[in-house]
Write the structure tokens for this entry.
Amino acid sequence: MSSQALISTLLLIALLPLLSALVAIVIPASYRWVTPLASSLLLALASVLSLLLSISQWNEPTLVWENTWFSLGESTVTAGILLNNTTLVLLSVVTFISFMVHLFSIGYMAGDKGEQRYYSMLGFFTFAMLGLVLADNLLLLFVFWELVGFSSYMLIGHWREKDAATAAAKKAFIINRIADLGFIIALLIIWTHTGSFSLSSFNFEEQEVWRTGAALCLLLAVMGKSAQLPFFNWLSSAMEGPTPVSALIHAATMVVAGVFLLIRVFALFTPLALDVVVIIGSTTAVLGALAALHQFDFKRILAYSTISQLGLLVAAVGTGAYGVALLHLLTHAFFKAGLFLGAGAVIHSLHQAQHSSHVHFDVQDIRNLGGLRKEMPITFFCFSICSAALAGLPLFSGFQSKDAILVSVFSWSGDLVWRQAFAWTIVITSILTIFYTVRMLWFVFFEEAKKTSLLTIQEVPTIMRIPLVLLSLGSLWWMVAFHPLDFSGWLLDSIQPNQEHNLFITWLSLISIPTLTVLAFLWFKKKKKRSTHAFLQEGYYLDYLNSLLVTKPVLAMSTVSERIDKRGLDGILHGFAYLTVGLAHFLAWIDKNIVDGLVNTSGRLAKGLGSIARSFSGGQIQSYIFWSVFALVISLFWFLFY
Amino acid sequence: MTLVAFLFYFFIATTALSAIALLFLKNIFHAALALLTCLLSLAALFVLLQAEFLAVSQILLYAGGVVILIIFGIMLTTKVGGQAVPITNTGLLPGLAVGAGVFFLLLFFVRKSLFTLPSSTQEPMVNNNIEGIGIAILTDYVLPFELAGVLLLAVLMGAAIIAGFKQVKN
Amino acid sequence: MSLQPIYILSTLLFSIGLVIVLVKRNAILVLMGIELMLNAANLNLTAFNKTVPASLDGQVFALFVMVIAVCETAVGLAIILQVYRYYHTSVPDEINELKG
């Protein structure tokens, strides 16, 4: 395929979602039933195109297409496309998952008041994500990074009338924005030292301090976007948005943008920076898993699970195995999206059932749910497949990618004790993952029905079942490689070949994971009393910490500055105004009294002189005679006596 | 001193005093009377200067004509009924100054003693003054005489017409 | 006898007449002042005549002056009368329509 045609196709793929967004807005309200279909069609087209493109362009040499964007002095910044295998993987993932979510939303969001706005923002988000994936330099990537954050804000706060939703949207955006400070500083550092933002020019030999600095700053941005340790409380609140949105953005695509960035700029990272990455990633993973175990809200379990898996991804990149991270990114996208859509299916059908029976309870609280496997068999089936992939059971894609992570972590740890400690935290995370997954399954599908027995529940409509089935199909072992126990498949071989295989770990996982699963089932079946800790349930009180350390001081500062502005600056302005007015009055006084006074005086002087001169012709005869005689006398005196 | 000298000085004094009184009198009628006194004294002086016809003409014309005319004028131009308005001065001091200036100027010429009596008394032309004047005005000065007549006629008509205009109410 | 006092008198009469013309606020009094001046001139002429007894030029001149003075007084009074009728005042200062 010629490069011109290739670039045009890529641009088309990127612009199709944007077109879908525009179409969704432009269609008048009377034809709103067209919107979901049109958007889904366009996304389907984009998805098919990107799949075909990926297959045809796999393992082709890297394509860089640059256009001059703007120039400052002698240096120019370009905007263009960087196409390599990583790009192709993500291109396909983003478009496919977005298409699935569109299909699901046809059913889920039917009848919603802001339906058109929803589809347009979905399309816009997809476009922004594709732009991020295709960008060839960091500045352009940053632009799309922010656009993605914005779309996330719009989508989380889609139900505007819900205060919790708008607050959550704000929190997500603000936390992301604070973390993006790191991105900006990194941009500055990179520009200063290399003079270019272009990703294809990232070849570094020397270990310099600035590289560590830039890498850590980028890591800060990644921590915000991908919900790592101090910045992850926005993700659990983001569950206030519609479930398909959570599936698309907060499971499969946006949150992995951070990981994608790490993979893109991997050449920048020094070993020291990479160590920091591993530490943060593994800590987040274990904390997320612990919290997931203690949540009662259906979607929050999934949210913390995402946090935990993202920690795994980040840690994998930190160990140097960015290909493994990409692999797990791929598999996680499928099974996590499947899990979220499954949860959405449950919520949807329960809501539908509530409407007809007028019984109301919180459908998202798993304590109210149970026994749904009989009423929603297909959902249960797909959900179980995806959960199995999450837990890492053999014969599912999750097993292979998690195995790859464990192998790479242990090979990274080598002999250093502190590294081994972190490696073991990954192991603990995997165990915890099994437990919370089983817990979730048990509560929702297996236990005796509690409140759900009061309702007649139906399976979700076909249009919503299709994505579930497709995604669960993508969670099976063949997604990674032909051999169910081997993780070096088409992806790893092309991106980071010659991975170490550690058969010991593989066989250990093969045996222990199913065992642990069964144990977990029995545990949850037996345990009647549920204990929980508020600390874990509330997300480690990060929200409270945030409000204490950040929100309150910022609000106080803004109140102070508002007062300064109002009294001080405005006072100065008013003072100036008063001064001007006073000056004007003073000048008016001067003008009236002094200037006009001068003029008047000269006038009066002229008048006086004039009247003196005029008095000679005053019309009084006697004065005429007087003056003439006077003149005569004077002249006579003069002539006679001088 | 002789009677002539006494009368001479007496009438000079009278004239001067009445003229000065004319300057300072407030009542216009009294001023007219002061003028009369002055003119009559002048007539006496004319007699002493051996200009008898002139003296009589002075009495006839001035004292008996002009002053009467003036008194009639006063009568007609003062506000009828009520007190007589006193005469005030405007700019008395400048006027006095100018007057003094003129006085001293003329006095200067007088003091230059250009006009002294000739030491030899010449023979007067005629003994009879009236006869002399009569002859003079009809021989040497007949033109001014006739013109004076014409003038008198013009004045007669003019004064009658001017004073007789029916004035539009102002 | 010396005619010096006559000249002094006539000078005096003339200047007093001038002062009256310049100062007084009544038109008729102004006329009287004029009369006084004319009479002063007459006196002077007659006194001059005494120094040249051979001719009577001075006296004839004085006679004509008298005639002229009478004419002038008559016309002047007529005018003053008309002016009085128009302006209702006999103060010359108040008749200043030619002012300016």
Q: What stands out?
A: The two ends of chain B are 62 Å apart (CA to CA). Chain B has six helices and no strands.
